[in-house]
Design goal:
9 helices; mainly alpha; three-stranded antiparallel sheet; two-stranded antiparallel sheet
């Protein structure tokens, strides 16, 4: 549109005639553009809009029709606002429009827009719509950026809170592990102390038991009996006595004859119960109870027999000598008294 006197309708009719002269089809449809060049942003912006455009079909024959709208031979003199843009499904070769847009990646040059086009109401309205679209787009971009920044800030805050919670949880677990370790150590030390205390108590008890059974100096009379075997001691005849008297006698004998403990040691040694082992080894309550029962059996059954045997030995060995001494003393005294009576 180099001629300023030509109108828009005449220019469109001229372009249609040129197209028919080149055996091309001229179409009038609704055009939707996905990218529009923005001077303020100096880049292409993605959005959809409809405005005035002329599209040439790159067909080889003039008989080809458009799929959406039928072709026609003339352009109406009055352009309706409802049909202010066109499109073609085939390859686009050249485009004329009232704004800076790209069609299939091709930028529309500014020299195609003349002053007459700029003075038209459609162009002015389009410029207003264009500015409103740019403002809305910028406002939308700002709101989008703000929402993204707020979302990112909220996400960062949530992540920081999660990290703080994780660190606090780890710290609590570490403190619990330390406390459990200290408690375990204290429990082990207390168990060791209680074990040592129990061992010292058992050791004192064993020493006290050993102190209750001293080893006295053996007498010659006892030496005579120590050479006898256990079988001889058990087979010696003992005169039967009542049960009450035997129990009373066993108690009195166990207190009177302290050298019986040596016989008990010998019996225990023969039965593999040595007091030395009791000093060196730890004795449990059950073992100690068994030993106590065996000692009780020895004291209540074997000791009375031993006491009876010792009594019989004393009677058999010493009674004739005592009687002889008594008779001798009586004879001497009678020899001193008889001459006095005679004289």
């Amino acid at each position: 549109m180099d001629d300023p006197n030509i109108t828009m309708e005449e220019y469109i009719q001229l372009m249609a005639d040129k197209a028919r002269g080149r055996d091309q089809t001229f179409n009038w449809e609704t055009a939707t553009y996905g990218e529009v060049y923005c001077e303020d942003l100096d880049s292409f912006t993605d959005f959809e809009t409809d405005f005035l455009a002329i599209v040439y079909n790159d067909a080889s024959t003039s008989n080809q029709n458009v799929s959406s709208e039928p072709s026609f031979d003339y352009i109406p003199k009055k352009l309706e606002e409802e049909y202010h843009s066109i499109k073609d499904d085939t390859l686009l070769v050249s485009v004329y429009t009232t704004g800076k847009v790209t069609m299939k990646g091709m930028l529309i040059p500014d020299n195609l827009i003349t002053n007459e086009i700029r003075d038209t109401q459609a162009y002015k309205k389009l410029r207003i719509i264009w500015r409103m679209m740019i403002e809305n787009m910028m406002r939308f971009m700002k709101s989008t950026i703000l929402s993204l920044s707020l979302h990112k800030t909220a996400k960062i805050t949530k992540e920081q809170e999660n990290m703080a919670a994780v660190k606090e949880k780890i710290l609590e677990e570490d403190v619990e592990n330390i406390i459990e370790g200290v408690i375990r150590t204290i429990q082990k030390k207390l168990m060791m102390m209680m074990r040592r205390k129990r061992m010292r108590k058992n050791k004192r008890r064993i020493e006290k038991m050993q102190a209750l059974i001293p080893s006295p100096i053996r007498s010659p009379r006892k030496d005579l009996y120590s050479h006898k075997t256990i079988t001889q001691e058990l087979t010696v005849f003992v005169s039967p006595t009542p049960a009450t008297s035997s129990q009373r006698r066993s108690k009195s004998i166990s207190k009177k004859y302290t050298y019986i403990t040596e016989d008990l040691r010998r019996i225990c040694r023969r039965q593999d119960f040595m007091l030395q082992h009791m000093q060196k080894k730890y004795v449990t309550n059950r073992d100690f109870q068994d030993i106590k029962e065996k000692v009780d059996v020895v004291l209540h059954e074997i000791v009375p027999k031993i006491a009876s045997n010792i009594t019989n030995d004393l009677i058999n060995d010493n009674l004739p000598r005592i009687i002889a001494n008594a008779v001798k003393k009586e004879r001497e005294s009678s020899q001193a008294i008889v001459p006095a009576l005679i004289s």
